[in-house]
Amino acid sequence: MSPTSNAPRSLHDLQNLLRDDIKVKVAGIDVDGVLRGKFMSKDKFISAASESDGFGFCSVIFGWDIHDQVYSRELLVSNKGNGYRDVIARVDLSTYRRIPWENNVPFFLVSFFDPDTKEPLFICPRMTLQKAMKEAEHHGWQCMAGAEFEYFQFKETPHSIAEKGFTNPTPLTPGMHGYSLLRPQLNKEYFHALFDESVKFGVPVEGHRTETGPGVYETALAYTNAARMADNAILFKLVAKSVGMKYGIIPSFMAKPWGNLPGCSGHIHVSIRSQDGKNIFAVKDSELKHGREGAANEDTKFLSKEAEEFLAGILDGLPDGMPMLVPTINGYKRLVGGESFWAPNAVTYGYDSRAASVRILSPPSVAPSATRFEIRIPGADMNPYFAFSTIFLLGLRGISKHMSLTIPPVSQMQSDPEKKKAVTKLSTSLEDATIKMMKPGSVAREILGDAFVDHFGGTREHEVALWNAAVTNWEVERYLELV
Question: What is the pTM of this model?
Answer without folding.
Answer: 0.96
